[in-house]
Amino acid sequence: EEVAVALLHVDHLQAGERRLRGAATVARLFDASVNALFVDSSALWASASVYGPEITPALIESQKSVSESQQLRAKESFDRVSAGSKVPMTWIINEGDPAGRICSNARVNDLIVMGAGGGEYLTAPGLLDQVVLGAGRPVLLLPDDFLSVTAQIGFERIVIGWNNSREAARAVHDALPFLHRADTILIAKVGSE
């Protein structure tokens, strides 16, 4: 199996541009394309059943303004990266719950690329867990400092954590496109001790 299309969750953060470059680099390895998904969750603020009666129209409008600003910054990063990339890249905007929208879009892509950093990136509680467990597609996590100016990427050395479970077998199967490119693969058996 090969990776034909990768779905990247994009955001407005400075590390988001590095993730865009990282996703483009990974896509280039597989002769794939990148769908860059920005999720506007500002409409969720209007739901008093979720946030309570203290949510005012002014607060909703303020959150909408913040989201528009974040979307603009994310799109500017996307434009910079896609202009200099040799990989086809598509900009997609969805509204709603970030985990739900990422999972929904993931089902028509071969790989999900997300940030592994903490802090600001994971503003939605449990976002990463929800996507990893709910998307039905492999997830490649890129750290915030991924692909610095001097870094190279090639997946020449890969470590597999193995515990002989169904999940481990599925993870190895999903990683086959990367494993085929590796020069060295180390299998670390994980036991109960």
What does this structure look like?
- With 193 residues, the chain is of the alpha/beta class.
- 40% of the residues lie in helices and 21% in strands.
- It has helices spanning 14-29, 48-51, 57-84, 98-106, 127-134, 166-174, 176-179; strands spanning 5-9, 33-40, 89-95, 111-115, 139-142, 157-162, 184-189.
- The protein has a 5-stranded parallel beta sheet, sandwiched between helices. Strands 6-7 form a two-stranded parallel sheet.
- The longest helix has 28 residues, at 57-84.
- The two termini are 35 Å apart.
- The mean pLDDT is 82.
User: What coarse outline follows from CA principal-axis ratios?
Assistant: globular
The low-pLDDT segments are none
Which strand-content bin applies to the residues? 15-25%
> Helical element count?
7
Q: What is the string of SSEs from the N terminus onward?
A: EHEHHEHEHEEHHE
Helix percent reads: 40-55%
* Radius of gyration of CA atoms, rounded to a whole number: 18 Å
Strand order of the largest sheet: 3-2-1-4-5
